[in-house]
Amino acid sequence: MYTVIKRMEISASHSLRLSYPSKCENLHGHNWIITVYCRSKELNADGMVIDFSHIKKIVKSTLDHQNLNEILPFNPTAENIARWICDQLHSCFKVEIQESEGNTAIYEKD
Fold first, then answer.
1. pLDDT over 90 at 98, yes or no
2. Which residues are annotated as a binding site?
3. 3 Cβ partners below 8 Å, 6+ apart?
4. What is the mean pLDDT of residues 17-26?
5. Which has the least CB within 10 A, 63, 72, 93, 102?
């Protein structure tokens, strides 16, 4: 089994739609640390699980310096964003998103 891990930082804003009053309902931003884990039993024709630049393109070109509420069709919690990223990459099995120091959400496929 081969595993590749890509870690990157993006800056993005969001506001959350919540069932309770919270300051997170106001538009605010984070410097998100995103770690993507991909794996495969076989390497592709280029000898890779996935090109690191493909992971970066999906994450950074879509999410970096954006208002996430305007580009994602769901409540942009760290948990939902982690799942969305994983769903965009065929070999992804886990995504960690650190929203701020001490606050990390993880999505892992079964």
1. yes
2. 14, 28, 30
3. 37, 38, 39, 49
4. 96
5. 102
Could you tell me whether strands 66-67 and 2-14 are parallel, antiparallel, or unpaired per DSSP bridges? Answer: parallel
Q: What is the domain partition of the chain in residue ranges?
A: 2-108
Tens digits of residue pLDDT in 49-73: 999 999 999 999 999 999 999 999 9
Q: What is the pTM of this model?
A: 0.94
Contacts of 96 (CB under 8 A, 6+ apart): 33, 34, 35, 37, 82, 104, 105, 106
Q: Which residues are catalytic?
A: 24, 65, 99
Q: Residue positions in the annotated binding site for Zn(2+)?
A: 14, 28, 30
Listed in sequence order, the residues at least 6 apart from 73 whose beta carbon sits closer than 8 Å to its beta carbon are none
**What average pLDDT score do residues 24-33 get?**
97
